């Protein structure tokens, strides 16, 4: 089916590439992997929801209308400062955020520390899903390495020279520059490489996502490929289906028999035939 980028029509569409789909008006896909974790609703402050691991070492914060819509962090214990933080903005599709939250949900355990491991000394370990997908690596410039998608509409920037362990060194981005069109996920320097790779894999995932036309930003819709989601057509009935339908319409009550019904009354005796006259001799 050819792309359909007309936003004046109603209905749902498949959006490809997924990194141009934006936020559908709710964050549900990003919280699905951690839906079984405790939910907390702060009464004050801009944060609307915090989903934390049972031991409170991992926290996924939802800020709604703020620019940093998601703030995800992990710490050595519930009261220590975060070891690493990811800030993800309001244009990022939640299906991409789900790449990170799913990895955290699968790794968390009371005796697990894999989500706190030191990142690899090789920055390519966090970028291999993009490189494997054929995204182009540009030469380093001022200590920053850029990786760009074939369409030039998504990429990653890695600061390989920042000495501060809390510096924001990795940025995954998508869409043209602009407050309403540029998606960004920014990771601090001590974020484990495999968690960045899980997010990058969701960014490069070729599978489209579904959006309502009304939630798409016109600029993103112009750049993406939209395909209408049509309901499945009813199946053509087979000869067996026709036979079964006809059988179901037949009457199930048989007509009354024409034979004489049984009764307990005694029928009258048959009439005797009239006596014949005797033969004459």
TrEMBL record:
Task: Give every DUF317 domain span.
Answer: 53-106
Q: InterPro entries per the record?
A: DUF317_SPDY
The segment annotated Disordered runs over 245-281
What name does UniProt use for this protein? DUF317 domain-containing protein
């Amino acid at each position: 089916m050819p792309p359909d980028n007309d936003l004046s029509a109603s209905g749902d569409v498949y959006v490809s590439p997924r990194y141009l789909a934006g936020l559908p008006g709710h964050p549900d896909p990003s919280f699905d992997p951690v839906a079984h974790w405790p939910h907390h609703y702060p009464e004050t402050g801009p944060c609307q929801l915090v989903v934390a691991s049972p031991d409170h070492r991992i926290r996924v914060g939802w800020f709604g209308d703020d620019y940093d819509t998601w703030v995800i962090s992990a710490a050595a214990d519930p009261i220590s400062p975060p070891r690493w933080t990811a800030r993800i903005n309001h244009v990022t599709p939640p299906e991409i955020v789900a790449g990170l939250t799913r990895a955290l949900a699968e790794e968390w355990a009371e005796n697990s520390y894999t989500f706190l491991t030191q990142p690899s000394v090789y920055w390519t370990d966090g970028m291999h899903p993009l490189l494997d997908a054929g995204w182009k690596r540009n030469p380093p410039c001022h200590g920053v390495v850029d990786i760009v998608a074939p369409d030039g509409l998504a990429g990653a920037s890695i600061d390989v020279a920042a000495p501060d362990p809390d510096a924001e060194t990795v940025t995954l981005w998508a869409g043209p520059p602009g407050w309403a069109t540029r998606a960004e996920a920014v990771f601090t320097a001590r974020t484990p490489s495999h968690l960045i790779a899980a997010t990058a894999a969701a960014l490069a995932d070729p599978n489209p996502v579904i959006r309502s036309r009304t939630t798409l930003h016109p600029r993103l819709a112009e750049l993406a490929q939209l395909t209408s989601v049509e309901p499945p057509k009813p199946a053509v009935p087979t000869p067996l289906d026709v036979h079964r339908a006809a059988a179901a319409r037949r009457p199930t009550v048989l007509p009354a028999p024409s034979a004489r019904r049984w009764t307990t009354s005694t029928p009258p005796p048959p009439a005797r035939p009239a006596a014949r006259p005797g033969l004459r001799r």
